[in-house]
Amino acid sequence: MExxxxxxxxxxxxxxxxxFGLGMLANQMxxxxxxxxxxxxxxxLGFPGWMLGVLYFLPRIFDAITDPIMGFISDNTKxxxxxxxxxxxIGAIIMGVSFALMWQMYTSNSVNYNFTYFLLWSFVxxxxxxxxxxxxxxxxxxxxxxxxxxxxIMATAQLIGQWAWVIAPWFWVLMADxxxxxxxxxxxxxxxxxxxxxxxxxxxxxxxxxxxxxTLNENYSSLTLGNIGGSxxxxxxxxxxxxxxxPFKKLCIATFLIFNAFNTIAGFSxxxxxxxxxxxxxxxxxxxxxxxxxxxxIVTTFLVIPIVAKMSKKMGKKKAFLISQxxxxxxxxxxxxxxxxxxxxxxxxxxxxxxxxIGSLFTLMMSMTSDVIDIDELNTNKRREGxxxxxxxxxxxxxxxxxxxxxxxxxxxxxxxxxxxxxxxESMFGLRIFFSGLPILGTLAAMYVMRNxxxxxxxTLLIRAELDKRNNNK
Length: 474
Hints:
The structure is a single chain. By secondary structure, this protein is mainly alpha-helical. Helix content is 76%, strand content 0%. α2 (49-75) runs antiparallel to α18.
């Protein structure tokens, strides 16, 4: 069991934080670009809403199932490189290769062929994502045992990772430029290769530069094929033990509600801007979908994350979370009123409020998860960042699967016509109702769940002192 290497891991160097953050940039760039490119499936390749829902749902369910297995493997790996680094590197390579191949589809193929091709490569991509992301997130959890330094680590990672959401919307501009690409599907085939290479390198950075100790002499479970297969009971027990910790359960449920609601409607902004603000006139709506995503991400990077980090230090993580999410509810309400045909610039005034939702979510929640892992160690005498990271991100990914399925169902429900030049008023009204209403409901529900979250700085310091005392007596 690995407990000895936890002593006094307080401050983390800026270089180590940046190395972890570059991995976060890859971790967020892949899904950010995936969301942009997905428009091509509907607009150029003719996928109906139900196909889009299936493509979101099935690979992410597969991803969610493999996460806890990867968490067990990562936590019990004996290696001179430690428990995480080799998996991060392998996952980076698999993600890069599969992402590039996933988008090599042609309009000359049938819709069913392209659907099957994309679905199969999606499974490979999400397997690579599991191999990368579970040990990568666990790396972040074990970088420090200091209450505030954990927030600093996650804030730095999110500051760097948010650039994915600044950069990704500009792919819409490149894809629409007929002097560069004759159509959207041609654009994605080319751009996917560049994205895959760049993100694979970024994802490999933590594996190369983040320090780790050898675990060759640790008393871990053996990772034979038979033992991994038979370890499912231990994985289930790990799940049960983790979810018995009430604060951790609250973190998972709140994240699921907020992130699921946000991702269900995230792709609708493009359609609302194009078909509601500009009535489908492609020559006029130009940069506005790009500005929606990019300006929101810039606000998150330079305003929201620094403010949330300071709020956390002054008033505690729970209060910072509740206030930030309350501000985001105001933003969603404003977006209902500020999507105004003929005045597209008006929605920009809602973005500083809107951005507090997702901008604060992972900065605070990943930091709070690190605190909860200390509680688990106190209860079990085991250090299980991999399992806890897998469970937490299982909730995130399961939420993404549900969100993808719901997105397709909502498009079908509001009678959105794939590839149509214009959409009906009823269809746009329905999309706007879901765009503002669903995240408001999810956020309010999450705030209710977190109202009694009780892991304070004082409680964390007491737990840390007890763990240090226990470890020093060994």
